[in-house]
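Hi R.,

Quick one: here's the Diacylglycerol kinase family protein sequence you asked about.
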Amino acid sequence: MKNSGFTLRKRALSFKYAFHGIFLLISREHNAWIHCFAAVCVITAGIFVGLSSMEWIVICLCIGLVLSAEAVNSAIEALADRVSPAYDEAIKRTKDLAAGAVLLLAIASAVVGLIIFLPKLTLLS
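And here's the predicted structure, written out as tokens:
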């Protein structure tokens, strides 16, 4: 594939494609819906308890990382299904590893959430 150089039109198109990818993630991927619901709950709770700027930064990074990992996982699954529609052990392993990566990041984000929110919630009671 020949690279014909940098143009503003190409950069604008790359953003268009990226936003379309976000739209596809949020509109079609069921697991992303769960992550988005969790994100809305966390943001609502953060507003309620009054998170600090640094806590918001960490929360935003966790939400972004989990959704990004889910997008990469969905892309891997779509490509794998296209390349090998029939059952293939290597494809299964690849898809399981990608899903595991999302789960690890979601668990780590939940732990971060507990570290941030538990002290604030215990002060409310």
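The chain has a mean pLDDT of 95.

Cheers,
M.
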